[in-house]
Amino acid sequence: MNISESHYKELVIAKSLLENPGLAVKISHFIGTPIEKGLALLPANWNKNIAKVTEKSLMKASEAAIFTMKDIPGEASSNRWHKLGAAVSGGVGGFFGLTAIAVELPVSTTIMLRSIADIARSEGELITSLDTKMACLEVFALGGTSDLDDSSESGYFAVRAALAKSVSEAAEFMLTKGITDEAAPLLVKLISNIAEKFGVQVTQKAAAQALPAIGAAGGAIINTVFIDHFQDMARGHFIVRKLERLYGYDTVRTAYNLLPNNTH
Predict the structure, then answer these.
(1) Helix (H) or strand (E) holding 116
(2) What integer is the mean pLDDT of 147-156?
(3) pTM for this structure?
(4) How far, in Å, CA of 246 to CA of 3, rounded?
(5) Measuring CA to CA, which residue among 206, 66, 196 is closest to residue 136?
(6) What is the per-residue pLDDT across 8-31, written as a single tens digit (0 to 9) for each?
(7) CA distances from 24 to 89, 112, 127, 151 (A)
């Protein structure tokens, strides 16, 4: 099935959002210094701790963020308000330094998940649908560097394929049993898979915040870049999903993979 010209243009936009500069590049550009310097300043046990913090943040966000939103598919998303909220929480995190990340990250993750759901809704998704909720969580796994980016399969579809089994298991269980304690292990498994990818990007954010003289203003800017990055991932992801509803998964994936990687 041929994709219409206007939808093809949307797919080009989606790929340019999903496959272009990662978060580390964007943050380095904004602060004018490579974040590698900040990575060296992170505490020795950072990786072990951040895994717990990212998982907890995603779990808290998934419980709170989407369930209070009204179902109005196609309503324009309010990206600015969400950016402002993330900037404020990032400013607090920047002011108190790395010690605040365990407090700040659940707040900014919840704001980001609401923003992601808002974008999903603007692309015609039903927020009350379990499939949409799972797709919103998937966004946190997108947009990092991938070892698979050089293969014929894009980084974006490779990540979705890697998550597909845990997404369908969690969704299937929750459809029959609802969100109960019994469903928790499957949801935890999914969130833990997503947290692995998300943790890499949280580490990049923390590395930038660890640089001397970043302070509260820098923390706010870094968090704005952080949410902006995931808003881009969400926009690309939900454009692709919208086209998949129209043309089917295989048609869209084939057309997407045939597009050049640098689609700016």
Answers:
(1) helix 101-122
(2) 56
(3) 0.84
(4) 9
(5) 66
(6) 999 999 999 998 888 888 888 888
(7) 20, 18, 30, 22
